[in-house]
Amino acid sequence: MIASLINLNGQGHYLHWGFIQISVANLVLIGLMVVVFIAAILLPFPGHRRRDQ
Amino acid sequence: MTVQADVPSDTSAGLPEDAGQLSARLRNTALENFPPGRIMPDRQPAYVASWIYVFGVLTMSALSIVILTGIVLAIFGPSWWHVSSTGLFVNSLHLWSVEAFFFFMVIHLWGKFFMAAWRGKRRATWITGVVSFVVSVGAAFTGYLSQQNFDSQWIGTQAKDGINSTGAGAVFNVLNFGQMLMWHIVLLPLAIVAIVGVHVLLVRRRGVVPPFAAPAVVDTAAEASAAGTTATAAGTTATANEGVADSPGTPDTGATPEAETGAEPTTTPDTVTTGSAPDAAPPTAGGQR
Questions:
Q1: ipTM strictly over 0.85?
Q2: B111 vs A40: CB contact, 8 Å cut-off?
Q3: Under an 8 A CB cutoff, do A37 and B242 touch?
Q4: Min Cα separation A45/chain B (Å)
């Protein structure tokens, strides 16, 4: 089902900016890593206060 | 090795007359640097209770899946992973666990970089992490070359010029499938496992890097210790500030690996715990969770 939504066998899409060239897939992945990194810093860790009580 | 008929059944501590033997020296060195309580600690410092500290073990978990699926692929061979549905599934698992491996490792690297994780005699820990990252890139590269499809042909023909420009093409020929496969399934996995093993041992030895405010904590605790006013923690202190301890940028009051102490000096003066020498190992420190 997911494969029907996202065709991974098609031609890749690329972004060009001067000498910089990056695929959209890689750019999305980098953005996702940044989001997860920020979330890992900001989100509270579950059960952290339990021992204190 | 000395052979005796009256050697006691339990020789784990070693006999005094055998202290000069290679096995005894190795054992004693290992026990000094990596005592069991430090290798397999029951507790971690309170500041480890943050998501950013999770990505190291996530990386290792992904690596274990990479290795396990790689072993299965090696057992059955290309004709299996290219044709059968099960083989394709395991091949996909191998690919996507590599994707997860790098995803987690990059976030782990970012976190440690912004924490300056080489502090507190952790240079070797940082360096082994960087080396394992570089070697992993090489392992992934040779893996893409070993796919035996048009993608691997494209990557190989594109990469050969870059490799040749470095002069390494004479001994590392990316168009030599057999050589790339051997690098991918023998040499580089061995190197990664060895380097990651050393990396984890160093993490255990030096402890998880504390948040940035911890060095000040060390100073405070050392001064308190010198004045004879330290109190033992044993889980009874170092928790007053836990509500703000969920990010590495907001230091917890838990013990720091470097000093096994835990008082954020400017905000929580009531949380001084045990004071020991800076850069001591953390695992059994007070204020841990």
A1: no
A2: yes
A3: no
A4: 5
